[in-house]
Amino acid sequence: MSEYDFRAIEAKWQKIWEDEKAFEVDNRPDPSRPDFYCLEMLPYPSGRLHMGHVRNYTIGDALARFKTARGFKVLHPMGWDSFGLPAENAAIKRKIHPRIWTEDNISQMRQQLRRMGYSYDWRREIAAHRPEYYRWNQWFFLKLLERGLAYRANRWVNWCNTCQTVLANEQVEGGVCWRCESPVVRKALEQWFFRITDYAEELDAFLPKLTGWSDRVRQMQKNWIGRSEGALVRFSVERSAAEPLEIFTTRLDTIYGATFCVLAPEHPAVAALTAGSPEAARVTEFVRRMTERNVSTLDFETEEKEGVFTGRHALNPYTGERIPIWVGNFVLMEYGTGAIMAVPGNDARDHEFALKYGLPIRPVVRPEDASAPPAADGPFVEPGILIDSGPYTGMTSGSAFEAMLLSGEEKGFARRTVHYRIRDWGISRQRYWGTPIPVIHCARCGAVPVPEKDLPVILPDDVEFTGEGGSPLARSASFTKADCPRCGNPARRETDTMDTFVDSSWYFYRYTDPQNERAPFDAAAARAWFPIDQYTGGITHAILHLIYCRFFTKVMRDMGLVDLDEPVVRLLNQGMVLKGGSAMSKSKGNVVEPDSMVERYGADTCRLFILFASPPERDLEWNDQGVEGCHRFLERVWRLAASAFAPSPAPAPPAAGSERQTALRRKTHQTILRVTEDLDRRLHFNTAIAAIMELVNETSLFVQAGVTSEAERACAREALTAIVRLLSPFAPHFSEEVWERLDGKGRLLSLAWPEADPALAAAPQVEVVVQINGKLRGKVTVGRGASEGEVLERARGDARLEAHLQGKTLAKTIFVPDRLLNLVVRG
Ligand code: ANZ
Ligand code: ZN
Q: Cα dist. 704→636, 679, 692 in Å?
């Protein structure tokens, strides 16, 4: 008997799959095979596959293989999210060009993925850093510009003076630059934005339709979009011809309690309000201090509230009351109108501010339940019943809001509005390793888009990576020198590159038509595969990546490129891989390298363990004994199969066999049913694998007890073939090898999924005697092992038995499983 030589077996099958182009699919619709788009989030090519990747891709691969066996035509592609900072840092540290570093990493990781036996159609591979790909990012940028969805504006960024560069929030660690540790400052920069806010309403409204997404992710997106219904109210400024101040509130019902107004430090009215007044110097100083404060430590919820009085007053349009106007750090210019009315009697932040500066506090809403004890600390902030609110006193918050709005609308100082917390998407990065934004700045014509025929704008090679002095692109003469496409005068090329989230917002469309040179993809190709039936990836992308994807799809729909509203039907966010209770990480020193696992146990063992150890959405604790156990399990199946390796034609199992034969056949067919259901409905790989393990146990016992007759051999073989076929999505090399040895010909891959015979799977029936007060009254037929409750229910459903029970109360039951139910009744 040969050993389970996983090294030879895995290499052999990987070569065969490659030679036979086993996973290549075309785009032609096939009426006999429905299509299934199985997608996993593409990795950043760091150079090394980690267990998180392995988990993500094993889940996707098991599903892709299962669906293929179930008769679907499956698209299962892979690519590289290959732009981004690490390549640039490597260039600075090791003096390797980012492209070379990236390409090396890609070939290493592609090799690692192949070793795992994943069923990708590698002809469809894409990589974001290649001009064939990123030219289409540039093309999309031009289209968004045409549609008014891309624009340039001045915005605050995190800036490091030493490195002369913009830092992402993650690059600011404790208020200092992650690289040089000098303090991070705020700086206003001209940057490019995508107007995702135009789609805020739709992005929010479609969330309930994403029924194949978890509630958790939908809630995270909902919070991020942050829809709030409220009102805009105009407060005129006392002794001023200037425009009234417009404030945004979600609690118009509290307006009788507004005792002051607060403007954001950046509010454009601040300067005019204070000009020439004695407060001007203090206010200017405060505004300067606030706008320069360190953004990274800015957390508006916890930051100590600070402000200054402007010296001016506003008039409450509902009450005519005169209230002071302040400037405060807890009001954000980016939200609402950048101005609020403060109701310290009913709002926590306003309350804190009023206490600090001795401003009046006047509650105007009380709890509906008047007997409820007053809140011990702070104001009552919930909706309730109005007090001290003129004609609105006594109304509920809800009806007061509506009544006040109506009156304000009639008089022209209030209107209904909806605000969204989501901000436009800032896509500018002052970096080299990204898609160049296709714009040329001309002294005469301004920012001029690069004409479509001149795409791609290619990243230049003559750059130096020092890590200092801003973007390396800005120092490349060959790159920055350009003629204005409009007037032909010498001009300067834009040196910002795009956020890498742009690359990943539409890559899955490119997989459907990866070589297209005339368009990002052909509409018919996308139509053949979309929407994505299953998308698997980490929860860390629950917000940004998945919102940007949805936004891009909606824009593409409005451009007429695709005809769907949402790209992803079912979303699975797999849990993390932990060791010793915490996520595997270099700093924790608890990393298990996929390569060493594959070396030691083989890819199939690794895959099996990962799927078996935990349901996909949960975190998975790495466990060496568990891996060992999965390996022994495969060895056990191998030995079991080896006893039947002689490739003789499998005899048909007998129609009616001995009890022992029937029991094994039942288990076989039950397992097929169970595994199929677990994978079809819920992606419960772990319970599916557990069921296969049980079948292996029963089959071993059956074989150990001796297989002597042809009929017994047939039953054992039926069980064994089921085991091998059911295991194939999880341990594909192993299964193919065993199958080849059992069958002598053919590929498991080209075989349909096994079908269970429901009659064979059904539990055998037994007759249970039903007595009432000790007298035999009838019999019911139930599945063997039926519970007392099931038998009783069946008895009640029998008209003759029920006649004996009617109007009586059941005092006691005596139940002997599979035999007898005695009912003691009274009355
Ligand atoms: C008066 C009021 C009374 C408010 C009350 C709340 C409670 P959401 O629900 O998150 O949208 N606000 C408006 N613009 C702001 C800004 N730019 N910076 C900081 N706060 C701002 O929050 C809306 C509420 O947040 C608004 O309703 C406003 O305070 C404040 F008992 O107005 B409210
Ligand atoms: Zn020009």
A: 13, 31, 18
Cβ-based neighbours of 753, under 8 Å, separated by 6 or more: 66, 69, 70, 71, 676, 725
Q: What residues are in contact with ligand 1 under a 6 Å CB criterion? A: 228, 248-251, 254, 264, 330-332, 335-336, 338, 340-341, 343, 346-347, 381, 419
Note the ligand closest to the C-alpha atom of 365.
Answer: 1
Nearest residue by C-alpha to atom 7 in ligand 1 = 347
Helices 732-743 & 6-19, crossing angle to 10 degrees?
A: 90
Cα separation, 609 vs 623, in Å, equals: 9
The residue type at 156: W
Spell out the alpha helix ranges (H) of 708-751.
710-727, 732-743
Q: Which amino acid is at 502?
A: V
Atom 20 of ligand 1, residue of closest alpha carbon: 331
The β-bridge partners of 439 are 449
| DSSP calls for 387-450 | -S-GGGTT-BHHHHHHHHHHHHHHHTSEEEEEEE----EE-EE--SSSPBP-EEEETTTEEEEP
pTM for the full predicted model: 0.86
* DSSP state string for 161-182: TTTTEEE-GGGEETTEETTT-P
Distance CA 794, CA 779 (A): 10
* Contact (Cβ atoms closer than 8 angstroms) between residue 452 and residue 269: no
pLDDT (tens digit, 9 = 90+) per residue, 407-459?
999 999 999 999 999 989 999 988 899 999 999 999 999 999 999 999 999 99
List, for residues 590-641, the tens digit of each pLDDT value.
Answer: 899 999 999 999 999 999 999 999 999 999 999 999 999 999 999 999 999 9
Relative to the CA of 347, which ligand 1 atom is closest?
Answer: 31
Q: Is residue 85 within 8 Å of 433, Cβ to Cβ? A: yes
List pLDDT tens digits, range 760-803.
888 777 889 999 998 999 888 887 788 898 898 888 888 888 88
For residue 164, pLDDT beyond 80: no
Ligand 1 atom 27 nearest Cα: 249
Picking from 266, 279, 289, 386, the residue whose alpha carbon sits closest to that of residue 324 is 279
